[in-house]
Structures are given as structure tokens and as C-alpha cells.
Design a protein that fits this description.
- The protein has helices at residues 13-24, 53-60, 79-97, 113-116, 144-159, 182-196, 206-210, 218-229, 249-259, 274-277, 282-292, 305-312, 323-328, 336-349, and strands at residues 4-8, 28-33, 44-47, 67-70, 105-109, 162-168, 171-172, 212-213, 216-217, 237-241, 247-248.
- It is built from 14 helices and eleven strands.
- Helix 1 crosses helix 8 (218-229), helix 2 packs parallel to helix 3 (79-97) and helix 3 runs parallel beside helix 5.
- By secondary structure, it is α/β, with parallel strands linked by helices.
- It is globular.
């Protein structure tokens, strides 16, 4: 059966990795973004702002995807805004595709805020025990992930397509202009520390330094998304998606420092948020970019220190369980340190870091 994908958020970390995976599998692919830019050869570019219902209908007129992958969101000033805007984006998208009656499956990428709560109440209050498991109920708090899910569930019940929800931990992957990008943020921070000689401090909490954690490689997540569309037992299911290893940041920080030929600063237990450490780094990065001929002199297009601080500053140990996927046959594994190193090499090859 011919498969045609619509990847929503085509220029992001997950979307770009997914496009590569789908093309390798022989799918026809359309990529949607507000500004699609230069997508890979063979990908149909769709420029649309999902916040605008009519513009979305106009952009998708005549498109007949069999599978829709939603890998994007729009950050607002508060959670009420996140819920209003991001639920509307999913609704506008699926409403616009309804007349063609072509969609067989919708995959939605969310994340561990499903278990940890929204940014306004992140890792606060009564949380489920770790490792997080998919059967754990929603928190009793407003959350835009829940609103997105509900839009997908309602459209699926009405229009007859299957769905899957994918909940990665922090994603390791490459994209410029992404709102949640720990790997590139750490690479830029390390590059600046090396150039200036300032200490390479771990910015987070003792709980993250000493506790176990896991992460999600963008390529592995892309393979999981494709797997879920081809596995009937995975239809209408929610899944955690992580690499399969666990580590402590006190080990990983030394590994990252060594890749950049840095000596990590001793960890004293003091939280040193990157948002503060990097607040005045725009000029230094611009100078570094000019010195090395880098492609992106605007540091704000590369880093998301606020999000990296949220993850590395958490006051509790966070891990996720993958048993549900394993039981259904998804057995992929990706060492997280290798994922970081592959990302750093890719950033260097693309002249995004020196």
C-alpha cells in the first residue's frame, strides 16, 4: 500500500530526523513548517501557520497524506496559552485534512511533561513514581500535552483513523531555531568555555548530577514513529521512547568535556543555570563564528538554555520504562554518549560549532 507522510514540524529536531527515516523507507513525504526553507530533495514543502485555520486549509488543499506526524508545538507565555494555541493547531490541522478522507494514522510526539507537569508546575507536587510507565494516569493539572492528545483522540473517533502518542525524554538531535535543544546548547556552551578559558560547570542540580537518567536520540525516535505506523498492535497506544541505556550526569559531563578537550570544573552542588551563565554570550559567539567561519552567528538560533536548565535542574531522578514497546517488538538501542558525540560531529561538519 502506498504511504504518503505529512511531517508537521519538518525543520525541527524530530521532524528532520523523521523525514530522513521515511525517505529511506521509500515513502512519499511532505514537510510542513511556517518557513520550510530548504528541505531534503524530494520532499514537498508546505508553508503553513497552524494557528490560522483558514491559512491551514488553504495550504493543505489537495494534499492526501495517509499518515500524519505531529512533531511541533508553539511556546506561549503561560500554560493556559500553551493549551489554547497548541490544541487549536492540532484541531486546525486535522480539520483541514478531513475533506480528503485520506488519513489512516496520526502520530503525536509529546514528552515527559506528561508525567512531570507543565513548565509552570514542573516536577512539583505529587508525581508518579519512576520509571514512568504509560499506564500511569494523567496528573491533576492543566497540560497542553493532554489538550493535544484530546484533539487527536476526538478526530480519530470521528474520522476513523488510528493514532499513536510518543513520549520521548530529552531529545538529542540537530536543528537550528529549535525551542528545546539540549545537545546544541551544551555544544555552544562548551565551545565558548574552551575559547574563553572559563570553567565548564555542570549547570544543574545534585539530583541530576548523582541520579540515574535517560535520553532519546532523534534517529531512534524517528524509527519508533515509523514502527508504530506499521505495527497494528501499536495502534491507538501511547509509548515512552528512550535510548535504552541509563547514566548519571557526573559520568556524562566528563565524557562531553573530553570530546571538547576540556577539563570539567568540580561540581560543588551549586546550581549554575545556563540561562544566567550564557545571558551575555551573544557577542562572544558572534565573534567566535566570524573567527571560524561558522554558519550561524546568532546564538539565540542555536541555544535553548531555559529548557536545558529545566531538565538539568530537576530535583528528582527521572527515568522511563520501555517495556510496552519491547513487548510489541521494538528493540532498537542507542547509547546516549554516542548520540551526543554523533551530534557534536554533525554540528562541526555543518560548521555550526568550531
Amino acid at each position: 500500500m502506498n504511504n504518503t507522510a505529512l511531517v508537521v514540524g519538518a525543520t525541527g529536531i524530530v521532524g528532520s530526523a523523521l523525514i530522513r527515516e521515511l525517505q529511506a523507507a521509500g515513502w512519499a513525504v511532505h514537510g510542513l513548517a511556517r518557513s520550510p526553507g530548504a528541505l531534503p530533495a524530494g520532499v514537498g514543502a508546505v508553508a503553513a501557520d497552524l494557528r490560522d485555520a483558514q491559512a491551514t486549509r488553504d495550504a493543505l488543499a489537495g494534499l492526501t497524506p495517509t499518515h500524519v506526524f505531529i512533531t511541533t508545538w508553539s511556546r506561549q507565555a503561560n500554560e493556559a496559552g500553551n493549551i489554547r494555541v497548541n490544541a487549536a493547531m492540532v484541531r486546525h490541522l486535522l480539520d483541514a485534512l478531513r475533506p480528503a478522507d485520506s488519513v489512516r494514522h496520526v502520530a503525536l510526539v509529546t514528552g515527559l511533561k506528561h508525567y512531570l507537569g507543565p513548565f509552570e508546575a514542573y516536577a512539583q507536587g505529587a508525581l508518579p513514581q519512576t520509571p514512568f510507565r504509560e499506564e500511569q494516569p494523567r496528573l491533576d493539572v492543566d497540560n497542553f500535552y493532554y489538550a493535544q492528545e484530546d484533539e487527536v483522540f476526538a478526530a480519530a473517533a470521528r474520522d476513523g483513523f488510528s493514532w499513536s502518542v510518543h513520549r520521548p525524554h530529552t531529545v538529542i538531535g540537530a536543528a537550528v531555531g529549535n525551542a528545546m535543544n539540549m545537545g546544541t546548547t551544551l555544544a555552544v556552551y562548551a565551545s565558548l568555555c574552551k575559547r574563553s578559558g572559563r570553567p565548564f560547570y555542570f549547570p544543574g542540580s545534585p539530583a541530576q548530577w548523582n541520579g540515574l537518567t535517560d535520553m532519546t536520540d532523534a534517529g531512534l525516535l524517528a524509527r519508533h514513529l515509523l514502527w508504530a505506523t506499521q505495527t497494528p498492535a501499536a495502534f491507538n497506544q501511547a509509548f515512552n521512547v528512550v535510548n535504552g541505556d541509563v547514566f548519571r550526569w557526573r559520568w556524562m559531563w566528563e565524557r562531553i568535556a573530553a570530546w571538547f578537550d576540556l577539563e570539567p570544573a568540580p561540581f560543588t552542588g551549586e546550581v549554575r543555570p545556563l540561562e544566567q551563565q550564557m545571558a551575555d554570550d551573544a557577542a562572544a559567539w558572534s565573534a567566535l563564528a566570524a573567527e571560524h567561519g561558522l554558519r550561524e552567528p546568532d546564538i539565540h538560533r542555536l541555544i535553548s538554555p531555559w529548557h536545558t536548565d529545566a531538565d538539568l535542574g530537576r530535583p528528582l531522578e527521572v527515568m522511563t520504562d520501555m517495556s510496552k514497546s519491547r513487548r510489541l517488538g521494538f528493540l532498537d538501542y542507542q547509547p546516549s554518549d554516542d548520540a551526543f558525540f554523533a551530534l557534536f560531529a554533525q554540528l562541526r561538519a555543518k560548521r555550526l560549532i568550531p
